[in-house]
Amino acid sequence: MHGSTPFRPAARAGGPPGQEGPGHPDRRTLLRAAAGGGLALTGLAVAGAPGAGAAARATGGKVRDLTGPAETGRFAAPWTDLGIPARCPDGSMLLVCGDTFDGGGVGGPDWRSPVGLRSSGGDPASLTVDGSVGGGHAVGLVPEGHEGGTTAIPSDVFTVGPTMYMHLMRGVIHRTHHSDLWRSDDNGETWQYLCQWPGDQYGGQFQQKTYAVADDGHCYVLSTVFNRDVTSGLLLHRVRQDALGDPAAYEPWGYAGGAWAWGNPPTTVTAARRWGEICFRAMGGGYALSWLNMAPLDLRAQFFPLPTSNLFTTPERTTIVPTVPGRESGNAVAAPYGGFIVPGSTVEDLHLAVSQWYDARNYRVMQYRITGLTA
User: Fold this and answer.
1) What's the pTM?
2) Is residue 19 part of a domain?
3) Residue 245 lies in a domain
């Protein structure tokens, strides 16, 4: 691995929504326990029953498990989440995962984050993990010692020409110290540090970032607070693709003096809410945004023609709804989160990397195919 980072910390709001609160250990407690060599997961609640939908509910179902003992155990990564998919310059797919453990379940030995799992097939129809960065043992992609329960959680991975980029949120969970950006010129095998942003920039609303690679020479960047319990706006920036590693080159979009314009102080581009993971992509001549919605709990998507489209009025489509273990069918998932768009998706045929965690052995990344979004 090339490069280094000035700080070791990282952050993560992982785990199933609805499991934190009185009587149930939160993610910070779990990770600190793992750092100490043990993890008590007894008594965890299960995500709640389906809540009210958004504008329209899609149809669809599970395609396959992408991770788990049978799928990724041979890479010492039986327990992992997120799996943000990015098509590599060589045409394969890299799934960048978050907190990863070996052994008998979450909190087992060999805690790493992030790790890279590979699918030699780059099409959604052939998305199966058959390799990892590190060969037979998936390695941590960046230096992260997890001292004091810190971790390095990816919020996005994307490709511009021959170069891949990875954005990480770092610090103790829910207390993001900073976020940083890394690049790889060898299909994700090694990563070089580029830059970082303070965790309190824009009141924390620049912690979790996701990048849409446009055909106009820019990347468009949406960002939120990285804490599911905190209400946050959704901010929009643009940056030239040849200046991704220069924090000063990120130009905000905001409303001031009666008009929206680039260079105004950033203002939220949609209603403030409690956000989980977010994923912003150029797709089909327009743009797609997928996210974990916290109230009501579900995964949602919007499709719009321009990065600056009015998201206040753009319909929200429900892609995944929550259920309880044993009652999963169609697009109802127990303890869902994530919802990262698989490259090659279309509005009519949307593939998502959906995470799940409700006990020590039910912690995985799954592929879901969603249809009916244009109905």
Assistant:
1) 0.88
2) no
3) yes
Whether the Cβ atoms of residue 287 and residue 236 lie closer than 8 Å to each other: no
> Beta 317-323 vs 56-57: how paired, if at all?
parallel
Sequence-distant contacts of 146-149: CB under 8 A, at least 24 apart: 146/31, 146/34, 146/35, 146/111, 146/113, 147/8, 147/35, 148/9, 148/32, 148/35, 148/172, 149/28, 149/31, 149/32, 149/35, 149/173
Task: Tell me how many domains the chain contains.
Answer: 1
Is 236 within the bounds of a domain? yes
Could you read off the pLDDT of 252-308 as tens digits, one per residue? 999 999 999 999 999 999 999 999 999 999 999 999 999 999 999 999 999 999 999
Expressed as residue numbers, the domain containing 282 is 27-36+45-371
CATH, residue 180? 2.115.10.20
